[in-house]
Design brief:
The protein has 74 residues and is of the alpha+beta class. The chain has helices at 6-9, 24-31, 35-43, 61-71; strands at residues 21-23, 50-51, 57-60. The protein has one domain: Multidrug-efflux Transporter Regulator, Chain: A, Domain 2 (Orthogonal Bundle). The chain is built from 4 helices and 3 strands. Helix 2 packs across helix 3 (35-43). It starts with 5 loop residues before the first helix and ends with a helix. The mean pLDDT is 85.
């Protein structure tokens, strides 16, 4: 499987009827940080997340895109 890229992970959400969410590993790959760093960002409120029924975090694409822009990485 090819590594995630900004272009395929942050596709225009208007293309989907359902809001898109990214996994912790996908967000970490976009920012080139550890998964733990992403989890810490969510715990500190820097990046919003929702929990799956299994307890895993998912991150809204719009919020990830905004953080990338604020960080100067987009």
């Amino acid at each position: 499987m090819a590594p995630p890229t900004e272009s395929n992970l942050l596709a225009d959400p208007a293309d989907d009827d359902v809001h898109r969410f990214l996994r912790t590993s996908e967000v970490a790959a976009l920012f080139q940080v550890s998964e733990r760093a992403v989890t810490d960002w969510a715990a500190r409120g820097r990046l919003p997340s929702v929990r799956t029924p299994g307890g895993h975090r998912r991150y809204p694409v719009d919020a990830v895109r905004e953080l990338l822009e604020r960080s100067g990485l987009a």
